[in-house]
Amino acid sequence: MSSRIVVKIGSSSLTSAEGALNREAIQFFADEMASLRTSGHQILLVTSGAVAAGFREIGYSMRPRLLHEKQAAAAVGQALLMQAYQQAFAAHGIITAQILLTRTDFCSRKRMNNAGMTVDELLKQGVIPIFNENDTVSVDELKFGDNDTLSALVANLVKASHLLILTDMDGLYSGDPRRHPDAVRYERIREITQEIYAMAGGAGSSIGTGGMRSKVDAAKIATRGGVPVFVGKVSAQGDLQNAVNGVGRGTYFDTALSSLSMKKQWLGFMSTPLGTITVDTGAEEALTTGGHSLLPVGVKQIEGQFHAGDVVEVLNIKAEVIGRGIINYDAEQLQLVHGMSSSNVYQKLENIHRLEVVHRDEWITLK
Ligand SMILES: Nc1ncnc2c1ncn2[C@@H]1O[C@H](COP(=O)(O)OP(=O)(O)O)[C@@H](O)[C@H]1O
Ligand SMILES: N[C@@H](CCC(=O)OP(=O)(O)O)C(=O)O
């Protein structure tokens, strides 16, 4: 199988601040992707720009902020965006396909498998699949918002050899260069630590959404799934090929030492937690560094109406998210026994099938 490359292009690279598609830019990116394809790679594109391309057409004077206005703008802009790509790729005799996804599509393995099979078939037929979030049906709390996360999930789904996140900045700097002109650029990140997160700020322009922060989030998801990531700028002929060859103008994120199984990727990045539990310091250590399961004695607080088998988010006593796991208790049961030693739990609850609140095999550390 030829290698699969997922290219993500942000709104800031495709549209003007006034809200118009930059057709020249779209042609340029299509040319770059076509030439990558000629060199033997399969290409998948994740593109933003629907809201930015649609808001002026619809009559808004600036990029809307309200959800229903953004959705209306996206419905207009998505058609314009696709038309522009179709035209640009047609110059190379390449057919494109539109795939609109929401976060909930990734929650269901069945929907994900269906999307995966459709993509396989499109690639087999030589088509370039073009993804965007299905903005019209996404509700606020289930939105990707920016497309960086979507691109990482797509890259993991298709087992890509590279994820290239193209933006208006040539990589990750020690601070947002728009505000810190003396910031220095990182060529390579071997491990995404809290310090790296601290450097990455939000969107610097009025067009983009997630900024560098959501790109680092995406890099974390992809690299833990075994896909190396490039975040940077492509603006001259040959830049995209250079990005693939390791000499692009941007930052490279190495894959994590051991890549996660699909089950753990689902747990960490696609599932929807139905509750939150807070654990004490000992339990935090046991889960995050000790490789142990979570026992009732370490649980301090419980929120949400979850049932055994649901996914919950786990917080430490500083209220930071440390990971997610599949819970073995209903919320009401756990309320009765949290903080108790194991022997007391057995006395209190007669028919528990597993003592562990979260078993280590059904846990992912996200800190
Ligand atoms: N540490 C950083 N290094 C580089 N850029 C940063 C950093 N922190 C914030 N940014 C901002 O992130 C922006 C890119 O993200 P965004 O505007 O969302 O673009 P896109 O539309 O391509 O997704 C840059 O223009 C920059 O202002
Ligand atoms: N789905 C939205 C993406 C919004 C957005 O701005 O994303 P990005 O430019 O990738 O930070 C759109 O097409 O407008």
Automatic annotation (TrEMBL):
Keywords (A to Z) from UniProt: Amino-acid biosynthesis, ATP-binding, Cytoplasm, Kinase, Nucleotide-binding, Proline biosynthesis, Transferase
Classification via HAMAP family: ProB
Broad class of enzyme this protein falls into: transferase
GO molecular function: ATP binding; glutamate 5-kinase activity; RNA binding
Function text: Catalyzes the transfer of a phosphate group to glutamate to form L-glutamate 5-phosphate.
Family, as annotated: Belongs to the glutamate 5-kinase family.
UniProt source species: Paenibacillus crassostreae
Catalytic activity, reaction form: L-glutamate + ATP = L-glutamyl 5-phosphate + ADP
PANTHER family in the cross-refs: GLUTAMATE 5-KINASE, ISOPENTENYL PHOSPHATE KINASE
GO cellular component: cytosol
Record-listed E.C. numbers: 2.7.2.11
Binding site residues for ATP: K8, T167, D168, T209, G210, G211, M212, R213, S214, K215
Native organism taxonomy: Bacteria, Bacillati, Bacillota, Bacilli, Bacillales
Biological process according to GO: L-proline biosynthetic process
PUA domain mapped to chain residues: 275-356
Name listed for the protein in its UniProt record: Glutamate 5-kinase
